[in-house]
DNA sequence: GTGGTCTAGACCACG
DNA sequence: GTGGTCTAGACCACC
């Protein structure tokens, strides 16, 4: 699929899966009514324990992003896109805030932080993997 | 002292202590030869179990930031400042990179990410706590 | 398993565990990819507090001998054998050096030291416990 | 004096002092009736906490190696030499045994251990410090 | 007084 | 089930 899971990321795998699916819905890669790959399929593809995927789906179901369809699997729910677009912004914002909070508290001055941001963003756009 | 520990932060307490001390050394608040508060003192001040502090100090010792002095306590080691300045930048950089990687991968466009950065940084400087 | 822990040895228990595992890897008893007994299993078997074992494993992880596998346990890491063979020799060498240094410095002459070595080695091979 | 103290040796400093004095008596460097340097002198010379030296002297007094002399200090006791010669051999022997026990248990074969002994002994005689 | 080690037991996150 | 973190409290060695 469209997933980019990093087991050594600090972020729990189940949460990475949750986020990736939300981002896919927010970006229109998945739209209301689409069938999401089954737990087993995803687990096999991502080389992850099926329980982990199941936990992700459970979380997505509680958030109203996915709906279980008996005998079929999970479908993207009505109104999921708006919710995902909103959550995407919020998830990224929180991560940004928490990082900047530590940067600020660490005593780095504003110029250095700005510079780090520029460099990191450029590196990310170039597709580096060193984070 | 100069500590800002948040027990409900996700980041383990012992790691927060490690980082704060590295930042203090990087910023010149602590310099080579300075005696760091004893395990018991710090534990009492931060209302944290002494074992947790001991774990932080052990980690700092392995990194060559602190040196144990028998019967005295821990002292800031030779060359600690350079190392801490380096590590501070690296710790912040990694956090920045990993956040931006997720932002990029989430499909947010460059303008939105830039805007989030501006807003978040302004909020952090204003001292908000909403992250 | 293959452990010989002596709680009244002077050497900390967690360090004895670390060494025994390194020796096991060096000797080929454990090979890359092998799953090491879980913290709880080992603790139960050796009648040691789980935290103590956890500390040993943490140390072995930092040395690159073991790798944690989420939800599974610890596995012997790639390249562990070479490292362990090297460390085994070094650990024994250091112990030998430090003992001989004291012997030399104590004023015992060479013949006496040689003789003590012969006698001790013979005793160890006979399996005596008087040290 | 004739001391060779290594604070990072694992062996407690007070015990190193005890041993060194016993070795000096065993080797005839100190003989019955000789006055041993005062606690303060030794502490200053070895850059060690005076309490540590005091503890060493206390131990030596209990062993009958030193005798306190009011207003003078500590003197080497009657019969100390024989006792020290005996203890010297025993102390070295124990250290040898414990090292060889670990070597044996580590799986190193006899040839390797013999070789390590040769190399280490040669290095010690050359006066190396790497242990 | 200092740090080092160990135990006991709890709770959590993860798979 | 796994390891990770934290607390509480004990005992020890050392200075």
Descriptive account of the structure:
Chain A is mainly alpha-helical and 131 residues long. Chain A contains five helices and two strands. Chain A has helices at residues 13-26, 39-46, 50-62, 80-105, 110-126; strands at residues 66-69, 73-76. The first copy, chain A, has a two-stranded antiparallel ribbon with strand order 1-2. In chain A, a hairpin with a 3-residue loop joins β1 (66-69) and β2. In chain A, α1 crosses α3, α1 (13-26) crosses α4 and α2 (39-46) crosses α3 (50-62). Chain A is elongated, with a radius of gyration of 17 Å. The first copy, chain A, starts with 12 loop residues before the first helix and ends in a 5-residue tail after the last helix. The model of chain A has no long low-confidence stretch (mean pLDDT 89). Chains in contact: A-B, C-D. The interface between C and D is large, with 38 and 42 residues. Chain B binds a DNA duplex (15 and 15 nucleotides) through residues 7, 12-14, 38-40, 48-52, 54-55, 57-58, 68-74.
């Amino acid at each position: 699929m469209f997933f980019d899971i990093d087991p050594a990321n600090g972020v729990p795998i189940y949460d990475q899966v949750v986020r990736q699916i939300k981002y896919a819905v927010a970006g229109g890669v998945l739209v209301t009514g689409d069938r999401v790959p089954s737990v087993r399929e995803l687990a096999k593809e991502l080389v992850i324990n099926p329980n982990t995927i199941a936990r992700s789906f459970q979380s997505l179901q509680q958030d109203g992003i996915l709906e279980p369809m008996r005998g079929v699997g999970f479908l993207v729910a009505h109104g999921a896109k708006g919710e995902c677009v909103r959550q995407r912004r919020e998830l990224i914002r929180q991560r940004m805030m928490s990082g900047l909070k530590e940067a600020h508290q660490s005593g780095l001055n504003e110029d250095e932080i700005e510079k780090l941001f520029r460099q990191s963003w450029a590196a990310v756009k170039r597709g580096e993997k060193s984070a």
